[in-house]
Every structure is written in structure tokens, then in C-alpha cells.
Design brief:
Layout lengths: L14 E5 L3 H14 L4 E5 L2 H8 L7 E4 L2 E2 L2 E2 L1 H11 L4 E5 L4 H9 L4 E4 L4 H12 L21 H9 L4 H11 L4 H8 L3 H15 L4 H9 L12
Parallel strand pairs: 1-2, 1-3, 3-6, 6-7
Antiparallel strand pairs: 4-5
Helix pairs in contact: 2-3, 7-9, 7-10, 8-9, 9-10
């Protein structure tokens, strides 16, 4: 006898946080979500750090909508850090870059769904309905790579390892990628330099690398700048 699959409880969804640095798009998407997806309140953040600060305060939004290309981060690293802060709140990526490699990487990093920026209003309704029902939303025509195929790509391996970092470690790695020394990082984060050194050691261990340079290269393996059009 075939077992009955467990039912996923519907997720209440009345509020959202849009993370995007394009004011006009934020306004348009906010109106769309309110009009077609039944969301009553929509907040916006124009950069990742602003969004992370918002997610440190209660109550959390019911949905986070994220653009990958932000002033303070580009690529999957931002999604990974946001997912860590969002907890059980689903993150829907909305990006103008709908390359299958980008979509697959977003899903691997924990996104609950992906919607191209040029999508019609009914697509946003369908996406929110899918997430509200406890499922995922994938754009029409997207085909995931079959499991058990080729060995993971460099980007996939980097995503898996970066997901092991804590929020503080992810922030420190971002500052390392900006070329900052331990002393500067300690000043920026208001922590002791010895604490920074301990975090750097833990970061390299989790990433499986032997130097800061190798850690930066792994982080940049998740950067989709070369695949994105200029409007992100």
C-alpha cells in the first residue's frame, strides 16, 4: 500500500520585505504583491545590510523578495547570508538574470523560488501562492540538472561550503573580499582582533582552503556579475 504523503501546512503570508536597490521597481513590485498576492504590508531595503538589520527585529515578514545584485553584495553569497538571517521565512529571488545556472545556484543556496523580473503579474501571484502553500516556485521552462550526474561544479561546491559559515563569519569573509585586514575588520565590527583571527581560521577550515586568497577565490566563484545584464 502506497503511503499517503505528509501534508504541508499552509504558510500565512500577509507581509513582505523587498530587497532591491531600484526604487521604481520596488514601488511597482510592492503594488503588484498587494494587488495580486494579497499582501497587506510591504517593506523595502536597498542593500543587504539594511535587510539583515531588519530581519534582526520582530515581527519578521512572511516573505522576503531578493534581487541578487545589490550595492554591497553581488551573487549567491548575499542569498546565503539572507537565508541564515531569515530562518523559516521563505526567500523568493526576483532577478533579470534567468540563466538556468543562476536559478539552480539560487535553489541550492536555499531560495524558495525564482521569478524573472520581466514576469507578468499572474506569475508573481502564482509564486506567492506556491510559497504560501508550503511549496517552491520555478519559472516556466526551467529544467534542473538530473541528480547523480557529473561531479559538482566549482560554483556548486562553493555554495555548499559557504552555507556552512555563520552570519558573523559570512560578514567577515565579505570584508576580506573587500581587501580589509584583520585590524580593519575588528574596527568595523567592534570586536577584538584576536576574535577576527579565530573567525578567519574557522572560515578557512569550513571552506577547506589554506589561505585568505583561496577563501576569496571561493567566495567569488558564486559571483554572477559576468552573467548578469547591467540592470541586475
Amino acid at each position: 500500500m502506497t503511503p499517503t504523503p505528509a501534508r504541508i501546512a499552509p504558510r500565512p503570508m500577509a507581509t513582505a520585505l523587498i530587497v532591491d536597490d531600484h526604487p521604481l521597481f520596488c514601488d511597482a513590485l510592492s503594488m503588484t504583491l498587494k494587488a495580486v498576492a494579497g499582501l497587506g504590508a510591504v517593506e523595502t531595503a536597498d542593500r543587504l545590510e539594511t535587510a539583515l538589520a531588519r530581519l534582526d527585529r520582530a515581527p519578521l515578514p512572511d516573505l522576503v523578495v531578493l534581487d541578487l545584485n545589490l550595492p554591497d553584495v553581488t551573487g549567491i553569497d548575499g542569498l546565503i547570508r539572507l537565508r541564515q538571517a531569515a530562518g523559516e521565512v521563505p526567500v523568493l529571488v526576483v532577478s533579470s538574470m534567468a540563466d538556468p545556472r543562476v536559478i539552480g545556484a539560487c535553489l541550492a543556496a536555499g531560495a524558495a523560488g525564482f521569478v524573472p523580473k520581466h514576469a507578468r503579474r499572474d506569475v508573481f501571484r502564482a509564486a506567492v501562492d506556491a510559497l504560501r502553500g508550503g511549496g517552491r516556485y520555478l519559472p516556466e521552462g526551467y529544467e534542473a540538472e538530473p541528480p547523480g550526474g557529473a561531479r559538482p561544479s566549482t560554483r556548486q561546491e562553493a555554495i555548499s561550503r559557504l552555507a556552512l559559515l555563520t552570519r558573523q563569519q559570512s560578514r567577515i569573509l565579505q570584508l576580506i573580499c573587500e581587501g580589509k585586514l584583520n585590524k580593519q575588520i575588528a574596527w568595523d565590527l567592534t570586536i577584538a582582533e584576536t576574535t577576527v583571527k579565530a573567525h578567519v581560521t574557522a572560515i578557512m577550515r569550513k571552506l577547506g582552503v589554506q589561505s585568505r586568497t583561496q577563501a576569496v577565490l571561493m567566495a567569488k566563484a558564486t559571483d554572477f556579475t559576468s552573467l548578469m545584464p547591467e540592470d541586475g
